[in-house]
Amino acid sequence: MEDGPVPGGDQRVAIVTEAEAAKVLIDPGSLRLLAPFIGRTLSVTEAAELSGEKPNTTLKRVRRFVELGLLEVKAELARAGRPIKLYGADADTFFVPFDATVAESLEEALAERDRLFEELLRRNVVKARLDTMGAWGTRIYRDARGRLQVQTALTPRSNVTSLDPQAPAVLSAWRDSLTLDFEDAKALQRELFDLLQRYLAKSGAQRYVVHLAMAPVLV
Q1: What is each CA distance from 153 to 121, 132, 133, 134, 167, in whole angstroms?
Q2: pLDDT, tens digit (0-9, with 9 covering 90-100), for 90-126
Q3: Count of other CB atoms within 10 angstroms of residue 98
Q4: pLDDT digits (tens, 9 = 90+) for 127-159
Q5: 139 beta partners
Q6: Total domain count for the chain?
Q7: Cα 27-172-143 angle, rounded to 5 deg
Q8: Is the pLDDT assigned to residue 7 strictly greater than 60?
Q9: What's the domain range around 180?
Q10: 84 and 73 in contact (C-beta within 8 Å)?
């Protein structure tokens, strides 16, 4: 791991080339456990409260992160008995080059990074729908505008409508036939990003997983 200042600032950046450390940072599950320590210092107990894990489990992970050079002891708080160690990330910014991963291609690297989130989204879309709607099927038809539709449906004539006020706040929609000029595509990209940023600024009672994505179909 190479350390250095971030250009234009006084933050430290770490270029992570060790395979095990890179794996921790690329995997969303392990990164979520390391994330509370990036940019701040925490005790094991505080980190356990944030992650929902038991303190002993968190301590094992913290020790592993220290071994990999991702965490370090920043301070110790004196108390009766052993002092409380405060841990913080070894850098303010981590950068993992593609060559440091075990993926054979950039496409595989992206798929591996997204895998946990995709499984989380799919599992909870299914559970939320089952809890409120029961079983469903797939309805394939051509709509009034002549477009082929593949929709989640309750019956051959009734699509699942999750926008009803009492329905769960779930959405899983794919469209591969959207045709836009470049200017419209860039406008949609910006609107989706701004919309996500607006709701990320809120703080509510329920955690949600959200996936926004778009790309020109080139291959």
Answers
A1: 19, 14, 10, 11, 14
A2: 999 999 998 888 888 888 888 888 888 899 999 998 8
A3: 11
A4: 988 888 888 888 998 888 888 888 888 888 888
A5: 151
A6: 2
A7: 150
A8: no
A9: 106-200
A10: no
Q: Same domain, yes or no, for 66 and 145?
A: no
| Inside any domain, residue 208 | no
Q: Is the dihedral of CA 110, 17, 47, 201 positive or negative?
A: negative
Q: Is residue 214 part of a domain?
A: no
> What is the model's pLDDT at position 158?
81
